[in-house]
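RECORD CONTENTS
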Amino acid sequence: MRVRTGTAKSLPLVAVRPFIEATRDSGYKSTSAALAELLDNSFEANASCVRLEISEQTKGGEKSVSVIDDGHGMSRAAMEVALQFGGSTRFNSRQGSGRYGMGLPNGSLTQARRIDLFSWVHPQGIWSTHLDVDEVAEGMVNGVPRPVRFRPEIEDYPASACGTFVT
């Protein structure tokens, strides 16, 4: 039986503001499970070197966790998709452990309120975007911000020709 909904405009499939808060409390109860998603992404990007950095921030003893790899890197378009819930360039692939495009955004946001993503396919073309729970919850953004050119300080320049940095 089909029910007609009429000509009225339908509601979005996902209520973005409550969804972003609710997703923080779903799955990935441990930091190690969330990090496993990022490490799997690095290996699927053919990284030969993956570095995990944990540092203590000066405010309140908070920790910062970063994963840096020398994988093939991502284009601007791929970066937007990577932070989108259900977004993936390898949807339903059986090659790695991830396949539905949920690991990077969902795993990371269960551990932090903000994800910063940097990627490059050559060292002079570093792009940056982010996903911030507070920006979404406050209605400041409704999607993944477009990647922008990132110009690091000389000492922060990537050591690899291509790669990705998630923090």
Notes: The helical segments are 16-23, 31-44, 76-82, 103-109, 133-137. Residues 1 and 7 are 19 Å apart (CA to CA). The longest helix spans residues 31-44. Strands lie at 50-56, 63-69, 114-120, 126-132, 148-149, 163-166.
